[in-house]
Amino acid sequence: MTVRPLLRVGPVRRFTRNLLCPVNLLGRPLLLKYTPDPSEARQEIRGHARLTRHYRVPTLHAHLRVPGGHLLAYERLPGGPDQGLLLDLLNADEPSSALHNYMDRLTSTYGDVILTTARPTDPALVIQKLYGNRAAPGGRLDRYYAGRDFLVADGLVDIPVSRLGTYALSINGRRHHLDWTSTLRWLRAHFASTEPVWAALTQGDPTDVNLAHPLAWFDYDTAGMNSILGEFANFLWYASALGGWLVPTYNPAAFADHPATFNRMPSNSPEMRRADIDQATGTIHIDYVSRLSAPRRTAVTLYWDRLVRPLAEHLWPGADLSHLLRPYLVMRILAVYNLADLAPEDRLVLLARLTDAMSPAFDPATYFCPLETPCPAP
User: What value does the mean pLDDT of the chain take?
Assistant: First the structure.
């Protein structure tokens, strides 16, 4: 006679400050989430309850205070190594019919819920964790950059970022200008505005590790009434830059159960080709090749064509979508990772991407879905 253990505990994984652990309790698969922040735990519980009526989310069976934080016990959805997330569909060699079907359902679900719940909303009533709080005094922008200067790219472009505005920038052959201090000031001012924003009920942090396959939503501490533009910028930037390149580079432990992510990194990581200063003309030359795998390009294109563009035409008819998206994108570039802490080449690519986003010629339809093209001849 085989006796099944009453409790079986799987490996513990860390995601930012939170811990996740799969367990089997009396034959029931659960996912335990430990969070040390009481306010974050309360927001997660509230956010989960708000999403339940509109999105597929795992059941929250229990939550309780434990020493040092809160423990939440969720229904554990099927999954395994390289299975169970949108991430796994994106880690394939080519876009699959499963990815197309997934994006159809994702965009149609979002479209229906956003149109049903969207309304102009006082920013004070919008979830602020990923945007407004980071721009506010004492937020991430201040913690990362206030009173701090750093080199544009150590050993490559050895000038302080505060002096970037005194140089012309030639990025892949196109001339630009970026004033670092003015950019930070503009970003803080934008998110300090009290003008109403279009908000809707969403999960708020739609990354390819927070979206299950089959479709479901994980992680609810940003769930509630979110800026619709912030929701768009979050998915597009994560799918096109963070998920395939920066996060596995700087937080590889988050992908321990999805090792195919690392095999796909060469297809999603930019390559620096030139970085130098022409002091005679006061020009910084940056040439790099953008890369995005075919599955990620497909996901971004479908998300843009089937969700962003039609909703923008409905909610902001005739408006300049590049102008609307810009502050949310720039916040994702600057306030996820501290640029000063990144490797010089990665920092330089992000400063180039920031410059493109701030350019009057910024076109989000191509920005998030770059075609791999050779750099211009020096």
Answer: 93
